[in-house]
Amino acid sequence: MTSTRPQRCEGKLALVTGGAQGLGRAHCIRLAQEGARVLASDINGAGAAETAEIINAEMGAGTAFSVEHNVTDPMSWEAAVTAARENMGGLNVLVNNAGIGVPGNIEECDFADWQRCFSINVDSIFHGCQKALPLMRDHAPGSIINISSIAGLIASDTMPAYNASKAAVWMLSKSIALHCAKKNMQIRCNSVHPTFVDTPILDGTARAAQLDKDVLLEKLARQIPLRFVGEPNDIANAVVYLASDESRFMTGAEIKLDGGISAM
């Protein structure tokens, strides 16, 4: 890809979890388009490799790499950080994007599902930051970007596990930000809080609700003041901002990308 304008993430070295599809793939592509080198990680190794192939076909070989990665496993995190060091020469942007939702209100939610939700949504960030910070410190300034959800700020009676885990991401991000600032690491940490976004997750939601995808999108849009469902790049553009030095004075904060829901 050729461009005459400055690339906002030139020289950045980014690891993006959940990079096989949806938001994770969008983050990887937009970061690469803005000059970053990217390591797409996912438990779906083939999907992560496909993301890297898409990027390299557009931006040139050596722009993107991939690694199979179980974000709940500390040893797998060590392997992912090693892959960042070996393939990109370092790491200064960590996008903790991997996450899931589980069904069931407080009476119906299975405890094993609750634990799995926290393991993927929250424990992954704990492990990831512990394993990545030593390498990020060597390549500062840096940025940790944790993908939470508007559901981490606004509750629903139907998703206690998702609400609680994404709220934990929000507060964990602030603690990490303060730690890095106190240690003068020159590494920032912020959270991003999207509402409904048109990703493959909504395909499964439509099937579960026995609705046509377009009908579901219209139904969801009616809940949003701006009256439309977000697209992956609406979130990825915020990730680019947080990864870039444009946001150098922003840490311990949250970006709400919710079409106005939280203003109601």
Automatic annotation (TrEMBL):
Lineage: superkingdom: Bacteria
UniProt entry keywords in alphabetical sequence: Oxidoreductase
Signal peptide start and end residues: none
GO molecular function, one term: glucose 1-dehydrogenase [NAD(P)+] activity
Pfam families recorded: adh_short_C2 (PF13561)
Enzyme class: oxidoreductase
SUPFAM superfamilies assigned to the protein according to its UniProt record, in alphabetical order: NAD(P)-binding Rossmann-fold domains (SSF51735)
EC number: 1.1.1.47
InterPro entries: NAD(P)-bd_dom_sf, Sc_DH/Rdtase_CS, SDR_fam
Family according to the record: Belongs to the short-chain dehydrogenases/reductases (SDR) family.
Matching PANTHER family: DEHYDROGENASES, SHORT CHAIN (PTHR24321), ESTRADIOL 17-BETA-DEHYDROGENASE 8-RELATED (PTHR24321:SF8)
Protein name from the UniProt record: Glucose 1-dehydrogenase
Annotated organism of origin: Erythrobacter insulae
